[in-house]
Amino acid sequence: MSGMTAILSYAHGVGSTPLLGETIGENLRRTVARFPNREALVVRHQQKRLTYRELWDATTQVAHNLLARGVQPGDRVGIWAPNRFEWVVVQYATARIGAILVNINPSYQSSELEYVLKQAGVSALLLARGFRKADYTALLAEVRGRCPELRWSLVLDDEWNELCKTASGSTEEELAAREASLQFDDAINIQYTSGTTGFPKGATLSHHNILNNAYFLCQGLHYTEQDRLCIPVPFYHCFGMVMGNLACTSCGACMVVPSEAFDPLAVLETLHAERCTSLYGVPTMYIAQVDHPRFHEFDLTSLRTGVMAGAPCPIELMKQVVTSMHMPEVAIAYGMTETSPISTLSATDDALELRVGTVGRVMPHVEIKIIDPASGHVVPRGSAGEFCTRGYSVMLGYWNNEKATQSSIDSGGWMHSGDLATMDEQGYVKIVGRIKDMIIRGGENIYPREIEEFLHTHPSISEAQIIGVPSEKYGEEVMAWVKPKPGTALTADELTKFCEGKIARFKTPRYWKIVEVFPMTVTGKVQKYRMREIAVLELKLQKAAEVQTA
Predict the structure, then answer these.
(1) In a 10 Å sphere around its CB, with 0-12 CB exposed, 13-18 middle and 19+ buried, how is residue 496 labelled?
(2) Angle subtended by helix axes 24-34 and 207-220, to nearest 10
(3) What CATH number is given to the structural domain containing 521?
(4) How many domains does the chain have?
(5) 4 domain residue, yes or no
(6) 1 is a domain residue
(7) Which of 93, 298, 305, 340 is surrounded by the most beta carbons within 10 Å?
(8) 533-549 pLDDT, tens per residue?
(9) 15 domain residue, yes or no
(10) What is the pLDDT of residues 109-145, one digit of tens each?
(11) Beta-strand relationship, 361-362 and 385-391
């Protein structure tokens, strides 16, 4: 045989620490035994502080009441609320009795609520009275008659104390027997994916999936019982309830909740007052804090580490987070709800360029590969292809949706992400875009991430997002949506000139849109599909106006 065989884009996370073979309840019980008097949960907007012993007692009371109300193992219990202490208590109480917690997005309206209640077969719903301008009780009343499986509901603001009273219909022996009957591979959580294409799908996750993913994140960030994690990301999402809550309780750290939903000032005040050591967020959240007019009033020197995930991080932002926010050990994580969520993580001591240019390396006990989407073959290192994950973290499947499960998890057990990625010789992974986001202009493959990274070097650009829009001549053209930094102004001509001679002409945006905000999901992810819809409509109207004036 002649020639060298190319190294393939496959990596296996070898870990010296074994996987945890226990339920979430068992894990919490061990932490409570080790650190009963340490603070477990601080919720600033509700002025709540619970030690680990108090958190355990609260989950015990709620577990008893759920048992008394007839909640069986495998029953789906919905929670529809923003970030608050009751959410955390319910998360652990349902896990202890084997009920499947169904996370319901706080921004859902009546049709989305109805869809999830019916699709998951929710039999009990715990809800806030409302959030922002939405009246949850009115929305529930609107759909309740069409949700025959929903047996009872409870409004947290009004009836929480009822749920925490000592239940006469449930004994300590019954709760102990229920806990002893549970297995770590049981389904324990359903999280609905954003549903940017069609109806949302319910990723069904087990104790084993999410507890281990949280635990190995905890190891990767070197958390101990001394750490205090500020969690401004939503609980209904893996970022909040797994990477946040479960990571803390798996090692005895403290969960610190600044507000019901992200508010940059509340986060800064919380970091300062609570001496937090770690902070989570998507890049837009960090930008909002660094750009806040009162940023310099707060002492952030207690910070050490944290996670930035959910979107690419511009290098200028990373430099500010490391220096101005005192987070030298901030890490980049990558994953998806269906993989519990993290598949790759940068090391806290990786060079800054690696933490910005890549999403780190494979997590312990996980396998990853990058394949040619057409052939399914693993591509050589350095070549772009679809990112896939296999291992303990892959979900059990989409709830009650075998067709969608089979189209996402192949016969080899690999979860297909839909993300385009490359892997270098050291195993560092770079996300270069979504398969469906890739722009094909006149036969040239264009990856939005590359242009976004370049535009972030412009001194007056706070954030840039690249999309493809239809073109009769080239099939697609590049469009940039750009958000200027406070107090600056940008023009399309100036931005086009900035690109000249620095990036290839075919990558230079044909269209520019200067904006103050981007269409966002509740988790702070930019909705590129919505940007496309808006852009296509505006371009059509512009074209029609030009035809009329011609």
Answers:
(1) middle
(2) 40
(3) 3.30.300.30
(4) 2
(5) no
(6) no
(7) 340
(8) 999 999 999 888 887 77
(9) no
(10) 898 899 999 999 999 999 999 999 899 999 999 999 9
(11) unpaired
